[in-house]
Amino acid sequence: MAAIASFVATPVAVRMAAKSRFAGSRVAAVSNGSRVCMATAPSWRPGSDHPPHLDGTMPGDFGFDPLYLGADAEALKWYKEAELQNGRWAMAAVAGILAQEVLNPDVFFYEAATKVDLPFPILGVVAAQFLMMHYVEIRRWRDFVKPGSMDSDPLFPGNSLPKHEVGYPGGIFDPFGFAKGDIAELKLKEIKNARLAMLAFVGFVVQAQATGLGPLACLKTHLGSPMDSTLISRGVVSAGTVISPGCQIPSTTIFQGITIPTPCLPLWPL
User: Are 163 and 144 in contact (CB under 8 A)?
Assistant: First the structure.
């Protein structure tokens, strides 16, 4: 009865705000006749409220933004696009690293590119890649700034993209027609795998620098001796002690007479 009296005494404005806040939530009936609202939006921390700018409309939105970096609407759009593109590159990189180690385990992925005997200078490859990637990335950026403005190919006018959401062009980029299915579910799966791939790639690089081994070789070593093959066992940083695992890769690599810096990540003072 006290709960009912409290609700009746609540100002109308407060009740309207509460109604707006729980719009779209499930309402469960309790045996005493009262109702309890239960939010259905998934959260990275169960029971926590989402920041106001994360309304659940973006794929993979679990309300995680403790620093409120996405509070600015325009910045949030850019962060979403940046995460998606970096995640796609990471998925390709992780798949390539694993495939290379399976097919040719004798080659360390960190040095794999320098083991290739090219019939032409590497500077020509870098220049060609720079020009082509520059062209593609500028067009992608322009499509982000003005959606739909880059749908027609200026070199091949017969090629064009259907109307699409930024970041999901479809058309020629969806040769198997996956977008005809549950596109919302596919977007969620993609961003989840993209986030895992970005973490995995950072892990591959860190363990390669600390051990000089590829990810599968590191996994084999860890399974053979779990307690002796971790970052904690190889290096410790405390208030008065610094034990560095060291860097197992050379600081520079020479390829076709060109010296390429390959520094370790500054995880420990060396």
Answer: no
Tell me: the pLDDT tens digits for 195-251?
999 999 999 998 898 888 999 999 999 898 887 777 666 665 555 655 666 788 888
Extract the runs of DSSP E, i.e. beta strands, from the chain: 26-29, 35-38, 236-237, 242-243, 252-255, 258-261
Q: Are the C-beta atoms of residues 152 and 160 closer than 8 Å to each other?
A: yes
Q: Tokens 């696009």 map to which residue?
A: 81
pLDDT per position as a tens digit, 66-93 = 889 999 999 999 999 999 999 999 999 9
Say if residues 216 and 113 touch (Cβ distance below 8 Å).
no
Q: For residues 192 and 81, what is the distance between their CA atoms, to the nearest angstrom?
A: 14
Asked if 179 contacts 168 with a C-beta cutoff of 8 angstroms, the reply is yes
